[in-house]
Amino acid sequence: MTKKWFRIGMVSVFILSVALRFWGLERFNTLVFDEVYFAKFGNNYLTRTPFFNAHPPLSQYMIGIGIWIGSHIPFWHDTVNGLTGSLRSPWTYRWFNALTGSFIPVVVAAIAYQLSYRRTFAILAGLFTACDGIFLVESRYALSNIYIVIFGLLGHWFLLSALDNQNRRRSFWLVFAGIGFGASVGTKWNGLWFLSGAYLIWVAAWVIHLIHSFFNSKFFFRSPSLEQEAGGRRQDSAAVASPRASAGGGSQESGVTSYSRSSSLSPSSQTPLQNLTQLNIFQMLFYLGIIPAFIYSIIWIPHLQLDKTYGFIAVHQQILKFHLHLGGNSPNVHPYCAAWYKWPLMTRPMAYYYQTAESITEPLPVMGPPLPAGAGQVIYDVHAMGNPFLWWFGVAAMLFLVGMLVLKAVIPWVKEKRFSMPATLSVDTWIALYLVINYAANLLPWVKVTRCVFIYHYMCAVVFAFLAIAWFVDRCLCSYYQQLRALGVTITFIVLAAFIFWMPIYLGLPLSPDGYKLRMWFSSWI
């Protein structure tokens, strides 16, 4: 893929994201789902109304900023309501989220490119993210999860950019990485998992480095073994180059040749992740420890100035108390409670908005209970549900990466009857490590959470599943085997077709009862 087509592709993904998120943004002139909290909280900051916030306040600041700007724009005020505490158009408290959410596919694509310098991988990652339902739904309403994701992803992108530079430029990007991670935690506490993923991949890089140094030292092995290790290093270097060669397929695939930027570079400079061991413990603690903590602390200042009931420590104690008393993770507490293991296969999505009408010509229903069964001929449903096939393929791709990493460790043991570690890992091995570690870092902490949790808590982890399936499809499309290329095209087509099929319940488009049932494949989805 040439640079020109790469730019066209990225612009197209962004335009698609913007169009989907801004279309009919004010259609439901009410507060949808947790807008009853976050839209009100954003307005409270503008009206200087003290209130208790059960989460860090950054996302409500952003919504408040959006309300203030939107209120000064002389259009999109055809419908208004006073549900936030002031007379506002729904557009004013939703548009900033829509704009922010539109950038998430672009940031995911940027991370994919920094991981590999492969343009096809980046375009696929951005496209798949743009074609997910729950990210679309969360972006169209005044909710907070969009901010925790984009700030966490920006932290990772800035970290990868830092690893791709040296000296002052590296420090510059590391400062922004710390700011991004701090802002993610300043949205919700589980933003900390993005930061933990960064630490874990850094620790993994050092472990690999130390294992290689230990097992391949002259003290432990004689020269024949060292020769074998050198041969393994050459083979692994060839493995790094092979994706570039296969991706070219004999054509000018500049999107993949930029993978190494120069044929004279050593394998260790093929991807920023291989530079992780250039960061020492003091840099990590300062840039990804002190700076995030500082950013998180100053985020609280405006809120604590507004509501002086609790100080900094006391407000955190109250937030923790609030979450500990939310009740167990069962339908008895909330009908849409879904334990962490239900998220990857999407067995319990949520209805954010559900109303019925007698005909499509009636005004959009916004208040009151739905019509009795059988009376409503038109259903308006906004479902916080991912793209089913994208999520399922993403889980399969993540399992494939886990298997690939296990095999890379087991096969040398079986063949050589000893543990060995190559001097440099291939780019795809680094990508697999990065995606698996960050996916686990954002999912597994929820195992111990006993309060009621919901499918939207999976958003921080599922973006890495999107990257995993994009990587798999990219490798298929770059294969010499026609069957694998066909598989990559088929997966992409299914993801796009599924997004179009379920789009009515993402956008709240009118559906007949039969059309609604056609999209509710399982009773647990309703």
Per-chain topology:
Blueprint: H1 3-22, H2 35-47, H3 58-71, H4 95-116, H5 119-130, H6 133-139, H7 145-163, H8 167-185, H9 192-215, H10 223-248, H11 254-257, H12 281-299, H13 301-306, H14 312-324, E1 350-357, E2 378-384, H15 388-416, H16 427-443, H17 459-477, H18 482-507, E3 510-511, H19 513-519
Antiparallel strand pairs: 1-2, 2-3
Helix pairs in contact: 1-4, 1-5, 2-3, 4-5, 4-6, 4-7, 5-17, 6-18, 7-8, 7-9, 8-12, 9-16, 15-16, 15-17, 15-18, 16-17, 17-18
Overview in brief:
With 526 residues, the chain is mainly α. It has helices at 3-22, 35-47, 58-71, 95-116, 119-130, 133-139, 145-163, 167-185, 192-215, 223-248, 254-257, 281-299, 301-306, 312-324, 388-416, 427-443, 459-477, 482-507, 513-519, and strands spanning 350-357, 378-384, 510-511.
Task: Describe this entry's structure for a reader.
- The protein is mostly helical and 526 residues long.
- Helices cover 60% and strands 3% of the residues.
- It has 19 helices and three strands.
- A three-stranded antiparallel beta sheet has the order 1-2-3.
- The radius of gyration is 25 Å and the shape is globular.
- The model is unreliable at 218-269 (pLDDT under 50).
For the residues shown, what is the average pLDDT?
Answer: 87
Are there runs of 5+ residues with pLDDT below 50, and where? 218-269
For the largest beta-sheet, the strand count, sense and barrel status come to: 3 strands, antiparallel
Number of DSSP E strands: 3
Distance between the amino and carboxyl termini: 42 Å
Described by the principal axes of the CA atoms, the overall outline is globular
Helical proportion? 55-70%
Strand order of the largest sheet: 1-2-3
Residues in β-strands, percent: under 5%
Please provide the ordered H/E string of secondary-structure elements.
HHHHHHHHHHHHHHEEHHHHEH
What oligomeric state best describes the polypeptide chains here? single chain
